[in-house]
Amino acid sequence: MKKKISAMVVGVGGIGCPAILSLARSGVSKIYMVDDDYVEASNLPRQLWHLPEDLGKAKVDSAYEKLSPLFPKVSFEPLFLRVDERNADTLFAAQELILDGTDSAESKLFFSDVAVRHARLLVSAGATGWKGQLMRIEPGGPCLRCAFSGDMKACAPPSQVGILGPMAGLLGFWAAALAQAPCSSQGAGALYWIDALRWRTGVLHIEKDKQCCCNEHPLL
To answer: Could you read off the pLDDT of 8-31 as tens digits, one per residue?
Structure first.
């Protein structure tokens, strides 16, 4: 990855923690860590920057305390807030890369819309149980709505079904790697999935839906 790039990771949890580590090691010069949650005991098995002594602490502060000494040349910016309609446009417009590690289907669709609106590169990753998936949304290419047509809202969140700890870590590193991949041809994309229980992986090729709302936002 080129130097002096700014990235924002939304969700400093099971996916966000390893993603931030990988981005820092890849030469990203400034990383905004965004989350409005606090460290809980249930987070400790899979969220690698949070330790027992961090219980009750803001996740962004816990991550900042661990990462800053390890990567003194990287500027980490902890932002304790929820990304929503009030601030998303400002936050996304200021970044070159956004990585979404949240566990809400509604949030993921919303982030995809904002990334399309501002022609920003977004890598969206999620996992539940033994399964995970991720997609890279590029300017001019298909978005999450092209891939799911809104069906993501029917998916149960990890808080209800649980999540395999190593799966979250794998998805986080994979998402950071995908962020560094060469751009695909405009109008085509891919959804990557993994089933760790059966040890199967695959790629679904996603075409840009001509009826999708992402066509309303031409490249800036």
So the answer is: 999 999 999 999 999 999 989 999
Distance (Å, whole) CA 13 – CA 10: 9
Instruction: Give the Cβ contact number of residue 219 at 10 Å.
Output: 8
pTM of the model: 0.89
- Kindly state the tokens that stand for 86: 């009030």
Q: d(Cα 208, Cα 205) in Å, to the nearest integer?
A: 10
Task: From 15, 12, 20, 10, select the one nearest 165 (Cα to Cα).
Answer: 15
**69 — phi, psi (to 5°)?**
-70, -30
| Pair of tokens at residue 215 | 């066509």
pLDDT of 176-208, one tens digit each? 999 888 776 555 689 999 998 888 999 999 988
Q: Which residues are the active-site residues?
A: 155
* First CA to last CA distance, the chain: 23
Q: Where are the beta strands (DSSP E) in the chain?
A: 6-10, 30-35, 75-80, 97-100, 121-128, 131-137, 188-195, 200-207
Is 88:106 a contact under the CB 8 Å cutoff? no
**DSSP β-ladder status, 188-195 and 131-137:** antiparallel
